[in-house]
TrEMBL record:
Keywords: Aminoacyl-tRNA synthetase, ATP-binding, Cytoplasm, Ligase, Nucleotide-binding, Protein biosynthesis. PROSITE patterns: AA_TRNA_LIGASE_II_GLYAB. Residues 582-682 form the DALR anticodon binding domain. This is Glycine--tRNA ligase beta subunit. The gene is glyS. Belongs to the class-II aminoacyl-tRNA synthetase family. Its EC number is 6.1.1.14. It comes from the Bacteria. Pfam families: DALR_1, tRNA_synt_2f. GO terms for molecular function: glycine-tRNA ligase activity.
């Protein structure tokens, strides 16, 4: 008879950002464990709230599956002696498997005969295995853990109760001195202690105690409530998925409400209002159908609708106080000048070994200038870049950004306009922080792109130079993300700058500064591999195979736009059946060319027409290949290399490369070496595992 099983982990309030991942881990780990333990079931449902993680396993078999397993013993030459009798090795093997020598049979594996026996592994009662589930609970990983009381265990939050039911029976185990039981708890303020008599009662019992354990159901309640408010008030409430997911994980029993604030606050920049609502209060901003921000907000209460008007007034009061602060900061900030804030940067440390933010800004100015000199831009754009770099950090010293750190760059753009700065400079102050995540939005302007890259180059090279290399999951300065940002911007902009040369701009600057704690040798050791790994990440995100990544980035990294184009070309070629004979020809050249460093080809030594044809094809194709490269057309450049395949095949069909005549051999190897150098200028084709795809 099938049974139902429920496990619930009762916790102090979990951070909202941990919950969805923890719930998924609970499901994935449970499924793997049940499969490993050979326990069948019909379905799994997982639940989560800020105070609990739970899983319901439906129709679980009462016993593990019984299986027949094949056990492999020693080779027959060890299992039998010269007279054909079973040796101690064979007897010991069978005894260890609960069998006798009469149960032995043999099988050949790769030319060697081994002895085997089959044994029946009886399934244990499921209820005897279920206490081991504590290992699943203990194995759930969180972004940050803590200890509590005298416990050695580390978990996201202290465990306060554990439910473990096998139908009506309690599954016995203890975690962190908390013993399993059939008692759980409802809503912290509206609910009571609940005694569960059966796993299938869980969801309804919790709802009766004001806890919606299904996260998707809570999300639907929130969305339905917002839709109802939109219809009643003719509002438009933009839904950001990240905010919705966070809010659903902050409440156990959601009730949606609408509040308001004074219209006068609408004079503040929209980002200030939205940030105050979303980031600090977890409210949804409200807009008109034409997209204008309105003096209303939508919130979600953790509870029912009782005394909801009082709740609304309380939330309005909190938001009013925050917006009043924002208005005061906004007005006070405008009483000072950019130069005033620039001067204050001298008193704020960026990194103890790299100086102040003011020092960093000066380095960003120098790097920006060098980049501007490297790419093709006009004098006005150069001036805009230099000014944007110079004032890129001034808003960090404003009252508004000190209070609302999420507004860095955003307020810089706003204030720069107010202070009469060039529009391109104002936009660049915001854009120089982009992208804020590995796949985030890139700067749209050239000025913003240059200052963004310069700022990131300074951070990466500076941090590596003082020993702050990322390790494992630890990357407090976001160096990996910033390196990916540099590569993405360089590609998007189509900058014809070698990636190594781009990073070297910052290296040379630091070298000239002679900072006490900066180790130039350390940077030179670390930088190539660090950047190469980020290039590999960018290519992998585009679906490029690992061996092609190695072929493209094995030696010098090169220009980012070229890297991506070449990788895409080779990735598509490996899946074309028609490319196989071309690949075979090119790789054959590469293999033989590795046997020599000779470069001098003497046409007078050619004996066959195929030798002359290959040499002539090489000379012609080389020119055409270089011409397409100069136009940044890597597709057509590779087409030229493909044209070498037929004369290469003819060459190998009609010539012995490793001829006895040393003069002929050397000349032929030199010809192949020249072709190989041409091929390798595109990519290391030998690194590609072509054979796996044909």
């Amino acid at each position: 008879m099938a049974k139902n099983v429920l496990f619930e982990i009762g916790l102090e309030e979990l951070p909202a950002r941990f919950i969805d991942d923890a719930e998924k881990q609970l499901e994935d780990k449970t499924r793997s464990w049940l499969e490993e333990e050979r326990i069948t079931y019909t379905g799994i449902e997982t639940y989560s709230t800020p105070r609990r993680l739970a899983i319901l396993i439906q129709d679980m078999d009462e016993n593990q599956a019984t299986i027949e397993e094949e056990a492999k013993g020693p080779a027959i030459k060890i299992a039998k002696d010269e007279d054909g009798n079973w040796t101690k090795a064979a007897i010991g093997f069978t005894k260890g498997q609960g069998k006798s020598v009469d149960d032995i049979y043999t099988k050949d594996i790769k030319g060697t005969t081994y002895i085997f026996v089959k044994k029946l592994i009886e399934g244990k009662p499921t209820k005897d295995i279920l206490p081991e589930f504590k290992r699943i609970i203990e194995s759930i990983q969180f972004g940050k853990n803590m200890r509590w009381g005298e416990q050695s265990m580390r978990y996201a939050r202290p465990i306060r109760w554990l439910v473990a039911l096998y139908d009506k029976e309690i599954i016995p185990f203890t975690i962190a001195q908390v013993q399993t039981n059939n008692e759980t708890f409802g809503h912290r303020f509206l609910g009571d202690k609940i005694t569960l008599h059966h796993p299938l009662d869980y969801k309804e019992k919790m709802k009766d105690s004001f806890v919606i354990v299904d996260a998707d159901e809570r999300e639907k309640i929130i969305l339905d409530g917002i839709k109802q408010i939109e219809n009643q008030h003719d509002f438009l409430v933009p839904i950001e998925q990240d905010l919705l997911e966070e809010v659903k994980n902050l409440v156990e029993y959601p009730t949606v409400f609408v509040g308001s604030f004074e219209k006068d606050f609408l004079q503040l920049p929209e980002q200030v209002l939205v940030t105050s609502m979303k980031e600090h209060q977890r409210y949804f901003p409200v807009k008109s159908n034409s997209g204008e921000l309105l003096p209303y907000f939508v919130g979600v209460r953790n509870g029912d609708s009782h005394a909801i008007e009082t709740v609304i007034k309380g939330n309005e009061k909190v938001l009013r106080a925050r917006l009043s602060d924002a208005q005061f900061f906004y007005e006070e900030d405008q009483k000072q000048t950019i130069d005033f804030y620039q001067e204050k940067l001298k008193n704020v440390v960026f990194q103890e070994k790299l100086g102040t933010i003011y020092d960093k800004v000066n380095r960003v100015i120098s790097i920006s200038k060098k980049i501007a000199e490297t790419i093709t831009i006009d004098e006005n754009e150069k001036k805009q870049i230099m000014r944007a770099a110079e004032i890129s950090k001034f808003d960090l010293m404003t009252n508004m950004v000190s209070e609302f750190t999420e507004l860095q760059g955003i307020m810089g753009e706003k204030y720069a306009r107010i202070y009469g700065e060039d529009e391109a400079v104002a936009v660049a102050i915001k854009e120089h922080y982009m992208p804020t995540s590995a796949g985030g939005e890139l700067p749209k302007t050239l000025v913003g792109s240059v200052v963004s890259v310069a700022e990131k180059l300074d951070t990466i090279v500076g941090c590596l130079g003082v020993g702050l290399k990322p390790s494992g999951s630890q990357d407090p300065y976001g160096l990996r993300r910033q390196a990916i940002g540099i590569l993405r911007i360089a590609n998007e902009r189509g900058w014809e700058i070698n990636v190594a040369e781009l990073f070297n701009i910052a290296v040379e600057l630091y070298e000239s500064l002679n900072l006490e704690h900066f180790n130039i040798e350390l940077v030179q050791q670390e930088l190539h591999d660090f950047v190469q790994q980020r290039v590999a990440f960018v290519l992998k995100e585009r679906g490029i195979e690992q061996d092609i990544i190695q072929a493209i980035t094995g030696e010098e990294i090169g220009v980012m736009s070229a890297i991506i184009q070449k990788a895409s070309i080779l990735s598509s070629k490996r899946n074309e059946e028609s490319f196989k004979p071309i690949q075979e020809a090119l790789v054959r050249v590469l293999n033989l060319a590795s046997k020599t460093d000779e470069m001098e080809v003497n046409a007078a030594y050619f004996e066959t027409d195929s030798e002359r044809s290959l040499y002539e094809a090489y000379e012609k194709i080389k020119q055409s290949y270089q011409s397409w490269l100069e136009k940044d057309n890597y597709q057509e450049a590779f087409v030229q290399l493909e044209k070498l395949a037929e004369p290469i095949h003819q060459f190998f069909d009609n010539n012995m490369v490793m001829a006895e005549d040393e003069r002929l051999k050397t000349n032929r190897l030199a010809l192949l070496n020249r072709i190989a150098i041409l091929l390798n200028s595109f990519a290391n084709l030998n690194a590609i595992e072509w054979k796996q795809h044909f």
